[in-house]
Target: Flagellar hook-associated protein 3
Amino acid sequence: MRITDNMMTKSYLKNLARNQQNVQKYHHQLSSMKEVSKPSDNPLLVSQIIGLKENVNSNQQYQSTIKDAIDWSNMQDASLGKATDSLMRISTLVQSAATDTMNASDRLIVRAEIETEIQTFVDALNTNYGGRYIFGGTETLKTPFEMSQDADGALTGIIYNGTSQNISREISPGVTVDLLTNGAGVLNDSGQSLGALFKEVVSALKNDDTKAVAATVGKVTTAIDHVVSFRTEVGAVSNRLGSALSRNESQDLNLREMLSSKEDIDFAKKYMQFSNEQVAYQASLQMGTKILNTTILDYL
Model:
């Protein structure tokens, strides 16, 4: 078959356009540092990149949830630490008031200090984190604990205004952790209510009843053990969250490395390809002036 000038021209211009497109493609990749800029560049690769970005974003949301839950648990731990300190002080005062060396006047002084410690205990449990109460169950906007008093202002107990449910947090797909927000669990131990115990202590001191005061010594110790045990459970939740955060951060690193391997270019390799295409394009331009009878401009 006879090769005409027109056929040679069309073939040449087609190859020249392809070389020019390659130069432009590599130039854009070097400028953006990305492998693709639009779906048509590589539909399969773009689909993989979109999927990985979704996974990264989802993992980041879980990470944010975990960190918030850790901060919440740390706040609970600090709150229970303060509550335990108050109980320890109450225990010391009750033990001193249970001896015959104190008179009625002394016990009234002790009673006043114990009432102050009870208020401190309640305030500790009413701690909030980011405007949300940490021991109100699922009711995070209402003050969970308050001291109840009779008409004479004497302590009658502690009222819990929260719910009996814990707040649950999803920390990874299908995996949840319960934050121990049910404040009733702090007050009650095998039917013994701290509110009732506080009332018993204050009443015994008010009545200057040494035997009644002595009868509360062991109960206060039990109450301390219960709050410490509850704090230990909170610590276990915090440890689990810490492990979850480590796994999440490791997964985040792996996902980002996978995304980078798909999306980001190898600069040195891409620059070499760009340089080769530039050489090919310049060679095509020079070749055109030799194989055609007319200049390139006549065909553009």
